[in-house]
């Protein structure tokens, strides 16, 4: 029993060393994912805003040319029901809301929200991160110029309005952060499993052969 103690100690030391190394790697990965969660959330929100704006742009052009103005409101309402969308609005060239979803009409969003988006309306492609006491979202503004078929109904010389798409950054950030936490838990459990398997392998491939050599000697 006394002779096997040093071997057991060696097995424990190697296993602990490997486990510590794996835990260190897991902590580094988790720290990196957590630190970049906000940046990743902003990138996702930006891509999402651009994708939504393209859908609205193509649909708006079609509906306006064919005189289906009510369909635009329906489209905006359907898209606004997405969990990551804070709101979608279309402003005219005087910064008055020309199209609003039914969700906004029944005042589920506060005046604070509308004050912020109105204050930040731009008639040029713009991305802004808006953060208040109750809201944290990415606002995307995309202007509409008076050209082509638009000139039949609009007599403005240049800009006839702007599309505003707001993506809930807080919700995307929390989802990204949750994924980082899940990844850390998986890495910790994997580290424990790998350390256990290596401990068994060390015992089979190292400790037992040494014992056999000792007995032979």
Distance between the termini: 17 Å
Helical/strand content category = alpha+beta
Mean pLDDT across the residues is: 78
Low-confidence stretches: none
Shape, principal axes of CA atoms: rod-shaped
Strand order, biggest sheet? 2-1-5-4-3
Count of helical stretches: 6
Query: Could you tell me the strand content as a percent range?
Result: 15-25%
What's the assembly state of these chains?
single chain
How many β-strands, per DSSP? 5
Instruction: Give the helices and strands as they follow along the chain.
Output: HHHEEHHEEEH
**Computed CA radius of gyration, to the nearest angstrom:** 30 Å
Features:
single chain; 5-stranded antiparallel β-sheet; 6 helices; rod-shaped
Notes on the structure:
By secondary structure, the protein is α+β, with helices and mostly antiparallel strands. Helix content is 62%, strand content 17%. It has six helices and five strands, in the order H-H-H-E-E-H-H-E-E-E-H. The chain has helices at residues 4-35, 37-65, 69-80, 102-105, 111-119, 169-216, and strands spanning 85-92, 97-99, 126-131, 136-145, 159-168. The protein has a five-stranded antiparallel sheet with strand order 2-1-5-4-3. Helix 1 (4-35) packs antiparallel against helix 6 (169-216) and helix 2 runs antiparallel to helix 3 (69-80). The longest helix has 48 residues, at 169-216. The protein is rod-shaped and about 100 Å long. The two termini are 17 Å apart.
Write the layout of secondary structure elements.
Blueprint: H1 4-35, H2 37-65, H3 69-80, E1 85-92, E2 97-99, H4 102-105, H5 111-119, E3 126-131, E4 136-145, E5 159-168, H6 169-216
Antiparallel strand pairs: 1-2, 1-5, 3-4, 4-5
Helix pairs in contact: 1-6, 2-3, 2-6
């Amino acid at each position: 029993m006394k002779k096997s103690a040093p071997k057991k100690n060696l097995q424990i030391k190697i296993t602990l060393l490997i486990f510590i190394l794996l835990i260190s790697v897991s902590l580094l990965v988790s720290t990196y994912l957590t630190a970049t969660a906000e940046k990743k959330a902003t990138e996702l929100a930006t891509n999402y805003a651009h994708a939504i704006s393209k859908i609205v742009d193509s649909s708006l052009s079609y509906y306006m040319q064919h005189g289906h103005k009510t369909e635009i409101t329906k489209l905006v309402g359907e898209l606004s029901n997405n969990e990551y969308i804070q709101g979608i609005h279309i402003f005219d060239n005087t910064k008055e809301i020309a199209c609003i979803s039914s969700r906004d009409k029944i005042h589920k969003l506060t005046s604070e929200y509308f004050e912020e988006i109105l204050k930040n309306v731009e008639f040029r492609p713009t991305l802004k991160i808006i953060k208040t006491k109750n809201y944290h979202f990415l606002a995307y503004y995309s202007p509409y110029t008076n050209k082509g078929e638009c000139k039949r109904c609009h007599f403005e010389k240049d800009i006839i309005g702007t599309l505003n798409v707001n993506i809930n950054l807080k919700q995307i950030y929390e989802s990204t952060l949750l994924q980082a936490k899940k990844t850390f838990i998986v890495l910790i459990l994997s580290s424990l499993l790998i350390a256990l398997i290596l401990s068994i392998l060390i015992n089979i491939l190292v400790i037992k052969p040494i014992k056999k050599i000792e007995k032979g000697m």
